Amino acid sequence: MKKTYDKPTVITMKKTSLAAPVLYLIGALSLGMALTAQAETVVLDRVIAVVDEGVVLQSEFDERRDSVLQRLQGQYEQLPPMDVLEQQILDQLILEQLQLEEAGRYGMEISDQQLNQALQQVMASNGLSSLDELAADLASQGMTLEQLREKMRRDLLVNQVQQGVVNNRIRVTEQEVDNFLASSDGKFATSPDFHLGHILISVASSANPEEAQKAEAKAEQIYQQLQDGAEFSQMAIAHSNDQTALDGGDLGWRKLAQLPELFSDVVSELKVGQISKPIRSGAGYHLLKNIEQRGGGEQLVQQTKARHILIKTSEIMDDETAKEKLSKIKNKIESGEDFAQLARENSEDIGSMLEGGDLGWASPGMFVPAFEEAMSNTEIDEITEPFKSQFGWHILQVTDRRQEDMSGVMIRNKAAQMMRERRFNEELQVWLLELRENAYLDIKDLDSTAQNTKPVDKDA
């Protein structure tokens, strides 16, 4: 099967990528000027659109058009008229250029580490184990590894600016969260998920009391064996009359709303690993096991209360000077001077300096990795050695720790995130329209039949 590298290279996670579909219909490479060393000539591109401070080149347009035609001709018998297709391609290139310029204004960059991680994802998804294999596969499609890296860099930048700008435009109020959680849709979406095991000892509708009693006794016997340590899946294979018996009775992940009311009432009370007593229904006797659970119940999180002092680096405050200054401040604190007062006098973290460096109670994931690591490795009342983060140099002191039930907060955060995701695409389209309306555009006539370039002697 032919592999393709002109699809979105952004793979998320926790999140699914929310980049605009119009941008990911086709992959593109911005090649700019191409050097032809053998002929010692330079191929000059024709500018087909001026987009604010950037341009769209004929070579970019040709690359995109060829990619579109190659992909769509393999999927559809009849394509739109060429002028319609070319206008869509040009619109996409213009929007892409506008977003890349926005990313530049915000100072966004894609690091080599991010590119390498994305490259590893591409290799894994295409079953490739080395860069040499990837390069060979790309060569068969007329693409180089450097061209793929450039495409991925652009895609990642576009995605990053979309996530940052569009999410910042979306506002979800506390009342909206309350209304969502009160709705049937919200209750279903935020309810816990249960991975369930099931054993059925069936009782025919025509069974007499003696047969029903025999089935009940068998269910009770199986329940007791399970309590004594028997393997649930093996018992299901050996005894269950349900269609999932050969799967070890595995029902998969279910929400309570997806279960019969008779089951949901019981499952909601089962702890992870716990097995219900036999439940009678019209079909017979059921035993249910809560194998795993996502959400619901008490969600204990270790929170840390800390305070810090930040010294930022600059042309007159290099790393060594900042580190030395913090070492002297640490010595003063250990000699008895007040941490809070020294933070007010020296810290450059505007958000915490007036509070004596106090950061309040923090849950995992609230700070950048370097800060999180230092905080988690520090005992209560201990002061760290100076350490560096992306914001500068810090010393911090952990003042307390606690276990906090965050189940309510987590449910509300989940609801708010779901509402943002639902609004993202609509808000994205609004933002893209605004970008184009407010941009300076000078669009030239397209040359769809030739590259419209000419070789020029380098010495001319």
| Uncertain spans | 7-43, 449-460
Fraction in beta strands: 15-25%
H and E order: EEEEHHHHHHHEHHEHEEEHHHEHEEHEE
The total tally of domains equals 3
Q: Report the average pLDDT across residues.
A: 84
CA-based shape: extended
Helical content stands at 40-55%
User: Biggest sheet, strands in spatial order?
Assistant: 6-5-8-7
Description:
The protein is an alpha+beta fold and 460 residues long. The chain folds into 3 domains: 34-171 and 442-457, Triger factor/SurA peptide-binding fold (Orthogonal Bundle), CATH 1.10.4030.10; 192-294, Chitinase A, domain 3 (Roll); 301-405, Chitinase A, domain 3 (Roll), CATH 3.10.50.40. It is 45% helix and 18% strand. Helix 1 (58-73) crosses helix 2 (82-105). It is extended, with a radius of gyration of 31 Å.
Task: Name the descriptors.
460 residues; alpha+beta; Triger factor/SurA peptide-binding fold; Chitinase A, domain 3; 4-stranded antiparallel beta sheet; 15 helices; disordered C terminus
